[in-house]
Amino acid sequence: MQDPVYTILIVDDNENNLFSLRALIEEHINANVIEADSGEEALKILFKERVDLIILDIQMEGMDGFELASIIKKRRMTSSIPIVFLTASYIGDEFQRRGFEIGAVDYLTKPIDEYQLINRINVYLKLIEKERTMNVILEKRVREQTEELRAAKEAAEAANEAKSIFLANISHELRTPLNILYSTTQIINSYLNDDQALDREKIRSKIAMQQQNCYRLLRLVNNLIDITKIDSGYFELQLSRYNIVEIVENITLLVVEYARNKGVSLIFDTDVEEKFAFCDQSAMERIILNLLSNAIKFTPRGGTIKVEVKDCGKTAQISVKDTGIGITEDKLEVIFERFKQVDNLLTRKNEGSGIGLSLVKSLVELHGGSIKVKSEYNKGSEFIVEIPAGLKDSDAQQADVPDRKEECEKMHHNVHIEFSDIYY
Q1: Nearest Cα to 173, choosing from 301, 295, 356?
Q2: CA atoms of 53 and 63, how far apart (whole Å)
Protein backbone atom coordinates (compact mmCIF):
# COMPACT_ATOMS: atom_id res chain seq x y z
CA MET A 1 0.00 0.00 0.00
CA GLN A 2 1.23 3.49 -0.82
CA ASP A 3 2.09 5.90 1.95
CA PRO A 4 -0.88 8.09 2.92
CA VAL A 5 -1.03 11.29 0.90
CA TYR A 6 -3.82 12.92 2.91
CA THR A 7 -4.18 13.86 6.57
CA ILE A 8 -7.64 13.92 8.16
CA LEU A 9 -8.22 15.46 11.60
CA ILE A 10 -11.27 14.16 13.53
CA VAL A 11 -12.38 16.23 16.53
CA ASP A 12 -14.85 14.83 19.06
CA ASP A 13 -14.94 14.84 22.88
CA ASN A 14 -16.38 11.30 22.89
CA GLU A 15 -13.63 8.68 22.88
CA ASN A 16 -15.89 6.00 21.40
CA ASN A 17 -16.86 8.28 18.51
CA LEU A 18 -13.20 8.98 17.80
CA PHE A 19 -12.35 5.28 17.77
CA SER A 20 -15.27 4.40 15.49
CA LEU A 21 -14.57 7.23 13.03
CA ARG A 22 -10.89 6.42 12.84
CA ALA A 23 -11.50 2.71 12.25
CA LEU A 24 -14.07 3.43 9.57
CA ILE A 25 -11.88 5.92 7.69
CA GLU A 26 -8.73 3.79 7.84
CA GLU A 27 -10.66 0.77 6.55
CA HIS A 28 -11.82 2.49 3.38
CA ILE A 29 -9.41 5.39 2.75
CA ASN A 30 -5.63 5.52 2.57
CA ALA A 31 -5.16 8.52 4.84
CA ASN A 32 -3.27 9.53 7.93
CA VAL A 33 -5.96 10.04 10.64
CA ILE A 34 -5.23 12.27 13.64
CA GLU A 35 -7.53 12.47 16.68
CA ALA A 36 -8.32 15.42 18.95
CA ASP A 37 -10.70 15.15 21.93
CA SER A 38 -11.17 18.91 22.38
CA GLY A 39 -11.02 22.19 20.52
CA GLU A 40 -7.82 23.16 22.33
CA GLU A 41 -6.13 19.89 21.34
CA ALA A 42 -7.23 20.36 17.74
CA LEU A 43 -5.66 23.83 17.62
CA LYS A 44 -2.35 22.47 18.97
CA ILE A 45 -2.34 19.84 16.23
CA LEU A 46 -3.15 22.40 13.52
CA PHE A 47 -0.20 24.53 14.64
CA LYS A 48 2.16 21.57 14.07
CA GLU A 49 0.62 19.42 11.32
CA ARG A 50 -0.52 19.98 7.75
CA VAL A 51 -4.15 18.85 7.61
CA ASP A 52 -6.22 18.32 4.44
CA LEU A 53 -9.71 17.73 5.90
CA ILE A 54 -11.35 18.27 9.32
CA ILE A 55 -14.33 16.25 10.58
CA LEU A 56 -15.63 18.24 13.52
CA ASP A 57 -18.28 17.44 16.15
CA ILE A 58 -20.36 20.53 16.97
CA GLN A 59 -21.57 19.71 20.47
CA MET A 60 -18.42 19.46 22.59
CA GLU A 61 -17.87 20.63 26.14
CA GLY A 62 -15.82 23.77 26.52
CA MET A 63 -14.99 25.05 23.04
CA ASP A 64 -17.77 23.82 20.76
CA GLY A 65 -17.46 23.04 17.06
CA PHE A 66 -18.72 26.44 15.88
CA GLU A 67 -16.17 28.32 18.01
CA LEU A 68 -13.31 26.05 16.89
CA ALA A 69 -14.32 26.35 13.22
CA SER A 70 -14.44 30.13 13.53
CA ILE A 71 -10.86 30.21 14.90
CA ILE A 72 -9.64 27.83 12.18
CA LYS A 73 -11.16 29.96 9.41
CA LYS A 74 -9.63 33.17 10.79
CA ARG A 75 -6.09 31.79 10.71
CA ARG A 76 -4.38 32.29 7.36
CA MET A 77 -2.55 28.93 7.51
CA THR A 78 -5.74 26.93 8.16
CA SER A 79 -8.49 29.00 6.54
CA SER A 80 -8.64 26.89 3.37
CA ILE A 81 -9.04 23.49 5.11
CA PRO A 82 -12.50 21.99 4.38
CA ILE A 83 -14.61 21.34 7.54
CA VAL A 84 -17.37 18.73 7.73
CA PHE A 85 -19.61 19.17 10.80
CA LEU A 86 -21.01 16.20 12.73
CA THR A 87 -24.10 16.67 14.90
CA ALA A 88 -26.63 14.52 16.75
CA SER A 89 -29.16 17.36 16.77
CA TYR A 90 -31.80 18.16 14.22
CA ILE A 91 -30.28 20.37 11.52
CA GLY A 92 -32.56 23.34 11.11
CA ASP A 93 -32.11 26.18 8.61
CA GLU A 94 -30.66 28.57 11.22
CA PHE A 95 -28.29 25.87 12.43
CA GLN A 96 -27.04 25.20 8.91
CA ARG A 97 -26.80 28.89 8.06
CA ARG A 98 -24.55 29.52 11.06
CA GLY A 99 -22.22 26.65 10.11
CA PHE A 100 -21.97 27.66 6.46
CA GLU A 101 -21.33 31.30 7.39
CA ILE A 102 -18.37 30.18 9.50
CA GLY A 103 -16.99 28.20 6.57
CA ALA A 104 -18.19 24.59 6.81
CA VAL A 105 -18.57 22.67 3.56
CA ASP A 106 -20.97 19.97 4.76
CA TYR A 107 -23.11 18.53 7.61
CA LEU A 108 -23.47 14.88 8.62
CA THR A 109 -25.95 13.69 11.22
CA LYS A 110 -25.23 11.11 13.90
CA PRO A 111 -25.59 8.18 13.94
CA ILE A 112 -23.23 8.20 10.99
CA ASP A 113 -24.21 6.50 7.75
CA GLU A 114 -20.92 4.78 6.89
CA TYR A 115 -21.51 4.74 3.14
CA GLN A 116 -22.46 8.41 3.12
CA LEU A 117 -19.46 9.43 5.25
CA ILE A 118 -16.90 7.60 3.11
CA ASN A 119 -18.43 8.95 -0.13
CA ARG A 120 -18.41 12.50 1.22
CA ILE A 121 -14.78 12.21 2.35
CA ASN A 122 -13.76 10.79 -1.05
CA VAL A 123 -15.49 13.68 -2.82
CA TYR A 124 -13.59 16.26 -0.76
CA LEU A 125 -10.27 14.41 -1.13
CA LYS A 126 -10.74 14.37 -4.91
CA LEU A 127 -11.42 18.11 -4.83
CA ILE A 128 -8.29 18.57 -2.72
CA GLU A 129 -6.30 16.49 -5.23
CA LYS A 130 -7.57 18.61 -8.10
CA GLU A 131 -6.65 21.75 -6.18
CA ARG A 132 -3.17 20.36 -5.53
CA THR A 133 -2.77 19.52 -9.21
CA MET A 134 -3.94 22.99 -10.21
CA ASN A 135 -1.55 24.52 -7.68
CA VAL A 136 1.32 22.49 -9.12
CA ILE A 137 0.38 23.59 -12.64
CA LEU A 138 0.01 27.17 -11.47
CA GLU A 139 3.34 27.11 -9.66
CA LYS A 140 4.98 25.64 -12.76
CA ARG A 141 3.47 28.37 -14.94
CA VAL A 142 4.54 31.02 -12.46
CA ARG A 143 8.09 29.61 -12.50
CA GLU A 144 8.07 29.48 -16.30
CA GLN A 145 6.71 33.01 -16.60
CA THR A 146 9.20 34.22 -14.01
CA GLU A 147 11.99 32.58 -15.99
CA GLU A 148 10.65 34.09 -19.22
CA LEU A 149 10.46 37.52 -17.61
CA ARG A 150 13.98 37.11 -16.26
CA ALA A 151 15.25 36.01 -19.67
CA ALA A 152 13.37 38.88 -21.35
CA LYS A 153 14.84 41.33 -18.86
CA GLU A 154 18.34 39.99 -19.45
CA ALA A 155 17.78 40.10 -23.22
CA ALA A 156 16.50 43.69 -23.00
CA GLU A 157 19.47 44.71 -20.86
CA ALA A 158 21.85 42.97 -23.27
CA ALA A 159 20.12 44.65 -26.23
CA ASN A 160 20.36 48.06 -24.55
CA GLU A 161 24.03 47.48 -23.82
CA ALA A 162 24.63 46.33 -27.40
CA LYS A 163 22.79 49.39 -28.73
CA SER A 164 24.84 51.67 -26.50
CA ILE A 165 28.04 50.10 -27.82
CA PHE A 166 26.66 50.31 -31.35
CA LEU A 167 25.84 54.01 -30.97
CA ALA A 168 29.29 54.67 -29.55
CA ASN A 169 30.75 52.74 -32.48
CA ILE A 170 28.65 54.62 -35.03
CA SER A 171 29.69 57.91 -33.44
CA HIS A 172 33.30 56.86 -33.87
CA GLU A 173 32.68 55.75 -37.46
CA LEU A 174 31.07 59.09 -38.32
CA ARG A 175 33.52 61.25 -36.42
CA THR A 176 36.70 59.70 -37.84
CA PRO A 177 36.08 60.33 -41.57
CA LEU A 178 34.54 63.75 -40.81
CA ASN A 179 37.65 64.75 -38.85
CA ILE A 180 39.85 63.52 -41.67
CA LEU A 181 37.77 65.40 -44.27
CA TYR A 182 37.90 68.57 -42.18
CA SER A 183 41.63 68.41 -41.49
CA THR A 184 42.42 67.50 -45.12
CA THR A 185 40.34 70.43 -46.34
CA GLN A 186 42.32 72.73 -44.04
CA ILE A 187 45.61 71.34 -45.38
CA ILE A 188 44.51 71.85 -49.00
CA ASN A 189 43.48 75.42 -48.14
CA SER A 190 46.90 76.03 -46.64
CA TYR A 191 48.49 74.74 -49.86
CA LEU A 192 46.31 77.08 -51.93
CA ASN A 193 47.14 80.07 -49.71
CA ASP A 194 50.86 79.36 -49.89
CA ASP A 195 52.69 81.74 -52.21
CA GLN A 196 55.01 79.00 -53.35
CA ALA A 197 54.26 76.82 -56.36
CA LEU A 198 51.55 74.26 -55.76
CA ASP A 199 52.66 70.67 -55.18
CA ARG A 200 50.08 68.81 -57.27
CA GLU A 201 51.04 65.40 -55.92
CA LYS A 202 50.43 66.53 -52.36
CA ILE A 203 47.02 67.90 -53.34
CA ARG A 204 46.12 64.71 -55.24
CA SER A 205 47.11 62.69 -52.18
CA LYS A 206 44.88 64.77 -49.92
CA ILE A 207 41.96 64.66 -52.36
CA ALA A 208 42.30 60.85 -52.55
CA MET A 209 42.10 60.77 -48.77
CA GLN A 210 38.99 62.95 -48.87
CA GLN A 211 37.42 60.69 -51.47
CA GLN A 212 38.10 57.54 -49.44
CA ASN A 213 36.50 59.02 -46.35
CA CYS A 214 33.50 60.21 -48.37
CA TYR A 215 33.14 56.58 -49.46
CA ARG A 216 33.32 55.51 -45.80
CA LEU A 217 30.51 57.85 -44.85
CA LEU A 218 28.47 56.77 -47.88
CA ARG A 219 28.97 53.08 -46.96
CA LEU A 220 27.86 53.67 -43.37
CA VAL A 221 24.79 55.68 -44.38
CA ASN A 222 23.83 53.10 -47.06
CA ASN A 223 24.06 50.27 -44.53
CA LEU A 224 21.99 52.14 -41.96
CA ILE A 225 19.30 53.02 -44.51
CA ASP A 226 19.11 49.50 -45.94
CA ILE A 227 19.02 47.75 -42.57
CA THR A 228 16.19 50.10 -41.55
CA LYS A 229 14.32 49.33 -44.78
CA ILE A 230 14.73 45.59 -44.22
CA ASP A 231 13.49 45.82 -40.63
CA SER A 232 10.49 47.87 -41.78
CA GLY A 233 9.69 45.50 -44.66
CA TYR A 234 10.29 48.14 -47.35
CA PHE A 235 13.40 46.63 -48.94
CA GLU A 236 12.54 45.01 -52.27
CA LEU A 237 14.85 42.82 -54.32
CA GLN A 238 15.07 43.43 -58.08
CA LEU A 239 15.20 39.80 -59.22
CA SER A 240 16.58 38.78 -62.58
CA ARG A 241 18.23 35.69 -63.99
CA TYR A 242 22.02 35.87 -63.53
CA ASN A 243 24.99 33.59 -63.75
CA ILE A 244 26.14 33.47 -60.11
CA VAL A 245 29.59 32.21 -61.13
CA GLU A 246 30.14 35.26 -63.35
CA ILE A 247 28.99 37.72 -60.67
CA VAL A 248 31.29 36.25 -58.02
CA GLU A 249 34.26 35.92 -60.37
CA ASN A 250 33.98 39.52 -61.64
CA ILE A 251 33.82 40.90 -58.11
CA THR A 252 36.78 38.77 -57.01
CA LEU A 253 38.90 39.99 -59.92
CA LEU A 254 38.17 43.61 -59.03
CA VAL A 255 39.27 42.99 -55.42
CA VAL A 256 42.54 41.25 -56.30
CA GLU A 257 44.44 44.56 -56.30
CA TYR A 258 43.18 45.44 -52.80
CA ALA A 259 44.28 42.04 -51.52
CA ARG A 260 47.69 42.33 -53.22
CA ASN A 261 48.28 45.76 -51.66
CA LYS A 262 47.58 44.15 -48.27
CA GLY A 263 50.05 41.35 -49.04
CA VAL A 264 47.29 38.74 -49.27
CA SER A 265 46.77 36.15 -52.05
CA LEU A 266 43.22 36.03 -53.45
CA ILE A 267 42.21 32.90 -55.37
CA PHE A 268 38.98 32.19 -57.26
CA ASP A 269 37.85 28.65 -58.05
CA THR A 270 34.66 27.00 -59.32
CA ASP A 271 33.50 23.51 -60.26
CA VAL A 272 31.11 24.87 -62.90
CA GLU A 273 31.28 27.70 -65.42
CA GLU A 274 27.58 28.54 -65.27
CA LYS A 275 25.09 28.38 -62.43
CA PHE A 276 22.00 30.50 -62.98
CA ALA A 277 19.72 31.84 -60.29
CA PHE A 278 17.17 34.59 -59.94
CA CYS A 279 18.72 37.18 -57.70
CA ASP A 280 19.30 40.87 -57.12
CA GLN A 281 22.69 41.59 -58.69
CA SER A 282 23.42 44.65 -56.53
CA ALA A 283 22.51 42.75 -53.37
CA MET A 284 24.69 39.79 -54.39
CA GLU A 285 27.59 42.13 -55.06
CA ARG A 286 27.21 43.70 -51.60
CA ILE A 287 27.13 40.25 -50.00
CA ILE A 288 30.35 39.12 -51.69
CA LEU A 289 32.10 42.47 -51.27
CA ASN A 290 31.34 42.56 -47.56
CA LEU A 291 32.65 39.03 -47.04
CA LEU A 292 35.79 39.79 -49.05
CA SER A 293 36.29 43.07 -47.22
CA ASN A 294 36.16 41.28 -43.86
CA ALA A 295 38.49 38.55 -45.09
CA ILE A 296 41.08 41.09 -46.26
CA LYS A 297 40.78 43.11 -43.03
CA PHE A 298 41.41 40.15 -40.79
CA THR A 299 43.94 38.21 -42.84
CA PRO A 300 47.56 39.17 -42.05
CA ARG A 301 50.22 39.77 -44.69
CA GLY A 302 51.26 36.55 -46.36
CA GLY A 303 47.83 34.98 -45.86
CA THR A 304 45.43 33.53 -48.42
CA ILE A 305 41.77 34.06 -49.28
CA LYS A 306 39.96 31.53 -51.45
CA VAL A 307 36.62 32.28 -53.10
CA GLU A 308 34.80 29.23 -54.43
CA VAL A 309 31.49 28.63 -56.21
CA LYS A 310 29.93 25.17 -56.22
CA ASP A 311 26.92 23.72 -58.01
CA CYS A 312 24.81 22.02 -55.30
CA GLY A 313 21.87 21.18 -57.51
CA LYS A 314 18.99 23.25 -56.14
CA THR A 315 21.40 25.82 -54.72
CA ALA A 316 24.53 27.71 -55.63
CA GLN A 317 27.10 27.65 -52.84
CA ILE A 318 29.54 30.53 -52.45
CA SER A 319 32.43 30.14 -50.03
CA VAL A 320 34.88 32.81 -48.83
CA LYS A 321 37.65 31.15 -46.84
CA ASP A 322 40.65 32.92 -45.31
CA THR A 323 43.71 32.14 -43.20
CA GLY A 324 43.11 35.14 -40.95
CA ILE A 325 42.80 35.59 -37.21
CA GLY A 326 39.58 33.57 -36.99
CA ILE A 327 36.76 33.86 -34.49
CA THR A 328 36.61 32.33 -31.02
CA GLU A 329 33.92 29.70 -30.50
CA ASP A 330 32.00 31.80 -27.97
CA LYS A 331 31.64 34.61 -30.55
CA LEU A 332 30.33 32.48 -33.42
CA GLU A 333 26.75 32.71 -32.17
CA VAL A 334 26.71 36.52 -32.18
CA ILE A 335 28.66 37.17 -35.38
CA PHE A 336 25.48 37.91 -37.39
CA GLU A 337 23.56 39.69 -34.61
CA ARG A 338 22.54 43.31 -34.95
CA PHE A 339 24.39 45.90 -32.84
CA LYS A 340 27.13 43.41 -31.91
CA GLN A 341 30.78 43.16 -32.86
CA VAL A 342 33.34 40.49 -32.19
CA ASP A 343 35.96 43.13 -31.45
CA ASN A 344 35.33 45.77 -28.83
CA LEU A 345 35.42 49.37 -30.05
CA LEU A 346 38.42 50.19 -27.86
CA THR A 347 40.45 47.09 -28.78
CA ARG A 348 39.52 46.28 -32.37
CA LYS A 349 42.27 46.65 -34.92
CA ASN A 350 40.08 47.42 -37.94
CA GLU A 351 37.40 49.93 -38.79
CA GLY A 352 33.74 48.97 -39.20
CA SER A 353 30.30 49.68 -37.82
CA GLY A 354 29.45 46.09 -36.87
CA ILE A 355 26.26 45.93 -38.97
CA GLY A 356 27.84 44.60 -42.16
CA LEU A 357 27.39 40.88 -41.44
CA SER A 358 23.91 41.48 -40.07
CA LEU A 359 23.01 43.18 -43.35
CA VAL A 360 24.62 40.35 -45.33
CA LYS A 361 22.55 37.76 -43.45
CA SER A 362 19.36 39.75 -44.10
CA LEU A 363 20.13 40.08 -47.82
CA VAL A 364 20.90 36.37 -48.12
CA GLU A 365 17.66 35.43 -46.33
CA LEU A 366 15.63 37.80 -48.54
CA HIS A 367 16.83 35.61 -51.43
CA GLY A 368 15.54 32.55 -49.56
CA GLY A 369 19.11 31.49 -48.86
CA SER A 370 21.25 30.85 -45.82
CA ILE A 371 24.65 31.80 -44.47
CA LYS A 372 26.85 30.07 -41.93
CA VAL A 373 30.38 30.45 -40.63
CA LYS A 374 33.09 27.99 -39.71
CA SER A 375 36.05 29.34 -37.83
CA GLU A 376 38.98 28.41 -35.65
CA TYR A 377 40.81 31.06 -33.69
CA ASN A 378 44.18 32.00 -35.21
CA LYS A 379 43.60 29.61 -38.12
CA GLY A 380 40.99 31.35 -40.24
CA SER A 381 37.30 31.57 -41.10
CA GLU A 382 34.98 30.35 -43.84
CA PHE A 383 31.67 32.00 -44.68
CA ILE A 384 29.34 29.82 -46.74
CA VAL A 385 26.37 31.30 -48.59
CA GLU A 386 23.73 29.19 -50.31
CA ILE A 387 21.31 30.78 -52.79
CA PRO A 388 18.33 28.89 -54.33
CA ALA A 389 18.79 28.21 -58.02
CA GLY A 390 15.53 26.51 -58.89
CA LEU A 391 13.02 29.35 -59.25
CA LYS A 392 10.65 29.47 -62.21
CA ASP A 393 10.97 31.99 -64.99
CA SER A 394 7.71 33.58 -63.84
CA ASP A 395 9.31 34.50 -60.50
CA ALA A 396 11.62 37.09 -62.04
CA GLN A 397 12.32 38.91 -65.21
CA GLN A 398 15.26 38.14 -67.45
CA ALA A 399 18.21 40.42 -66.88
CA ASP A 400 18.81 43.02 -69.57
CA VAL A 401 22.14 42.79 -71.34
CA PRO A 402 24.22 45.33 -69.41
CA ASP A 403 26.44 48.02 -70.84
CA ARG A 404 29.85 46.50 -70.05
CA LYS A 405 31.60 49.82 -69.52
CA GLU A 406 28.83 51.22 -67.35
CA GLU A 407 28.61 47.93 -65.44
CA CYS A 408 32.35 47.92 -64.81
CA GLU A 409 32.37 51.53 -63.61
CA LYS A 410 29.46 50.83 -61.27
CA MET A 411 31.18 47.77 -59.84
CA HIS A 412 34.44 49.71 -59.32
CA HIS A 413 32.43 52.38 -57.51
CA ASN A 414 30.83 49.75 -55.26
CA VAL A 415 34.23 48.21 -54.50
CA HIS A 416 35.62 51.62 -53.50
CA ILE A 417 32.68 52.13 -51.13
CA GLU A 418 32.84 48.65 -49.55
CA PHE A 419 36.63 48.76 -49.14
CA SER A 420 36.78 52.37 -47.98
CA ASP A 421 37.62 51.42 -44.39
CA ILE A 422 40.69 49.39 -45.37
CA TYR A 423 43.94 51.37 -45.06
CA TYR A 424 47.38 50.29 -46.23
Answers
A1: 356
A2: 19
Measured distance CA(52)–CA(254) in Å, rounded: 81
The CA radius of gyration of the chain, in Å to the nearest whole number, is 40
What separation in angstroms does the CA of 244 have from each of 13, 313, 361, 412, 422? 94, 13, 18, 18, 26
**pLDDT at residue 349 above 70?**
no
CB 53 within 8 A of CB 33: no
**3-class SS at 324?**
coil
The amino acid at 380:
G
pTM score of the predicted model? 0.57
Residue 34 to residue 276: CA distance in whole angstroms? 83
- Cα→Cα distances 364→246, 292, 305, 394, Å: 18, 15, 21, 21
Residue 280 CB neighbour total at 10 angstroms = 20
Pairing of strands 304-311, 315-322: antiparallel
Counts of helices then strands in the chain (DSSP H, E): 10, 13
Q: For the residues of 367-390, what is the DSSP string, one character each?
A: TT-EEEEEEETTTEEEEEEEEE--
Residues 147-183 have pLDDT tens digits of 988 888 888 887 777 676 666 677 767 777 888 888 8
Q: What is the dihedral of CA 94, 99, 100, 101, to 10 degrees?
A: 90
Sign of torsion over alpha carbons 186, 192, 196, 199:
positive
